[in-house]
What does this fold into?
Amino acid sequence: MIDRLTVLTEAGSDAVREAVHALRRHWIPRGAEPAAFFTLGTPSYLDLAGNPEEGDYRNRAGASRPLLWESFGGLYTRLADLLGEHLGAPVRYPEDLALPGFHVWLAAAVFTKPKAPVHFDMQYKAFTWPPGTDLSRLLSFTLPIRLPAAGGGLNVWDATYEEFRHALEKGWVEAAADLKRFHTMQYIPYEAGQMVIHSGHTLHQVAPSAGVAPDDERLTLQGHGVWCDGNWLLYW
It folds into this structure.
């Protein structure tokens, strides 16, 4: 199931974008040079999952936390308040995990074909969670800040991670993307300032834009959550 939650006005989105660009020297280039895709913050799917050096993630997360909180503390507080009201439970940002952070695609990195990985969000498995954690209760969210003129969104298939595990055990598929053959896709259009929330265990993919202009940009705040002892713990 996909939920939507309005977090920012147009003016608020513009202000966050300006703040992200003011921190450009802290952007981390990802992929081949010349880089056009960056992160601001510490994403576990890049800096921890599949990487045995957990200390690198912890150190980077700790180093980026004061910077992000100083620049976006109001946004983090508003997001936690709204999400907590929506979910009916308190939302916290554990100090030993990375704060939700930003994906920055400049025009050269905005793609117009469906080449992004088709996946489930599994990075939570790279962590050791405290007692009281229920890993059957998960969430992932994207808050678009700026989108290409032609739009942007999320491709979602009506397939769950549990269905994937069953199909894998039966030998019907070899990878999550194989499920596309058997399930219906839905395109979820993004709107700047409106957060899209799902479980992370729904098969999904960053959707391509219909076109790309020289001054286009795709900027999103990304994060995940796990349920622990009556609270939602948000991280990246």
In short: The radius of gyration is 17 Å.
